[in-house]
Amino acid sequence: MLRFAVIGHKAVSTPDFSLNDMPGGAGRMDVLCRCINASFFLSHDLRRDTECFLILKGGEQADPANTVTLRFSGEKIKSLNPDERSAGALIKKALVTIPEEEYQRAAPGISIRKSGLAKLLEEHPFAVLDENGEDIRTAETLPENFILSDHQNFTEEEMELIKDLPKYSVGPRVLHADHTIIIILNEFDRRGEQA
Pfam families, per this entry? Predict the structure, then answer.
């Protein structure tokens, strides 16, 4: 199972946002929607052995207590179409569910809980995508779990949490998070490994 975790630094954690204003009013939710689509879509199919976690920090002036994690499972997801609005609608629907400490089913293939990066790191051995990391094209083996940031850099607090994790790079230039996910999946495909 391949896993991608994307931190949405300004992403709202409530369903009261407009699908017509995901870049602004939803805190760059459009970036996260593209990451969902990149994680799962093939031509005429979905990657069933992939999960994507969105860590929604709650908006501009967010209280850390309002951070939620959404888990999307390729094995069970339904009603996902290859456009941002479709992914945004699923996120909005999932956020209607009141998050608790453990994952709750919010929709087919989507779960929600009240937690952030620290708890996710306790559960899975993640690697960090960083332009100064080991190149995925030359790495002997690749991890199955990757952490990315949205359009912003990791915060100091996040850097402290991930400082000892292995770091990998998709190349010498900084790319959009969704493009990075596609390149990683392509590398797994080229190696004939899962995903």
Answer: Methyltrn_RNA_2
Please answer whether residues 110 and 74 qualify as being in contact, where contact means their C-beta atoms are separated by less than 8 angstroms.
no
Paired residues of 71 in beta bridges: 53, 111
161 labelled binding-site residue: no
Q: 73: part of which helix (H) or strand (E)?
A: strand 68-73
- Superfamily designation of domain 2-191: SPOUT methyltransferase, trefoil knot domain (3.40.1280.10)
How far, in Å, are 18, 46, 67, 144 from residue 23 at the CA level?
10, 25, 19, 29
**pTM of whole model > 0.85?**
yes
Percent over 90 (pLDDT), the chain: 90
Residues 35-85 have pLDDT tens digits of 999 999 999 999 999 999 999 998 777 778 889 999 999 999 999 999 999
